[in-house]
Write a structure and sequence with these properties.
By secondary structure, the protein is an alpha+beta fold. The chain folds into 2 domains: 66 residues, Arc Repressor Mutant, subunit A, CATH 1.10.10.10; 93 residues, Arc Repressor Mutant, subunit A. The strands form 2 sheets. A 3-stranded antiparallel beta sheet has the order 1-3-2. It has a 3-stranded antiparallel beta sheet with strand order 4-6-5. Strand 5 and strand 6 form a beta hairpin.
């Protein structure tokens, strides 16, 4: 069902998407996507939900309701100032050894959705996202603050960097489509 697909994409996306982008992903027409988006906006925005559909500049994104801002702020503060979780450390390690890396590649390696973790690592200033113009998608890399925090002068000083940054097993996993 197209509605379920659109809802799922909006849920995992960490950025606003246009109707054309959604149509390309789902493989249907833009008009059909716009109809589904109207239905989703009615379902989410006209009820007392914790999730809303935000529309801005002809793009849509799932966002938390403004009424929840205090509890979200409290949660995020705990997430960002507390110790890093094992999944966060795992993700950061992969980015350090394999970066720049796309979200899709990262998720292929980890086997789970990494949207929230990537956002938290960026907020902590440990990773950064930028558009790779060659492949026309966002890639993630570590920041100089991360390298400095570890007391290194360059990322290649990480243990076993040469071996792990070009691991053939990982290369074969990433080449599977």
């Amino acid at each position: 069902m197209i509605k379920n697909k659109i809802e799922s994409i909006l849920f995992i996306s960490n950025k606003p998407l246009s109707a054309k982008q959604l149509a390309d992903l789902v493989g249907t027409g833009k008009a059909e996507i716009e109809t589904v988006l109207e239905t989703l906006k009615q379902e989410y925005n006209n009820k007392n939900n914790g999730i809303k559909i935000l529309e801005h500049d002809n793009k849509v994104q799932m966002v938390t309701a403004s009424e929840s801002s205090r509890v979200i702020e409290k949660f995020l503060k705990q997430e960002l100032t507390g110790e890093m979780t094992r999944p966060q450390l795992e993700t950061l390690t992969i980015i350090a050894y394999r970066g720049p890396i796309t979200k899709m590649e990262l998720e292929q390696i980890r086997g789970v959705n990494c949207s929230l973790i990537l956002r938290n690592l960026q907020i902590r200033g440990l990773t950064e996202a930028c558009l790779d113009k060659k492949i026309k998608t966002t890639v993630y890399n570590i920041t100089s603050d991360f390298v400095r925090f570890l007391g290194l002068t360059q990322i290649s000083q990480l243990p076993d960097y040469e071996r792990l940054s070009s691991n053939k097993t990982i290369e074969s996993i990433l080449s599977l489509d």
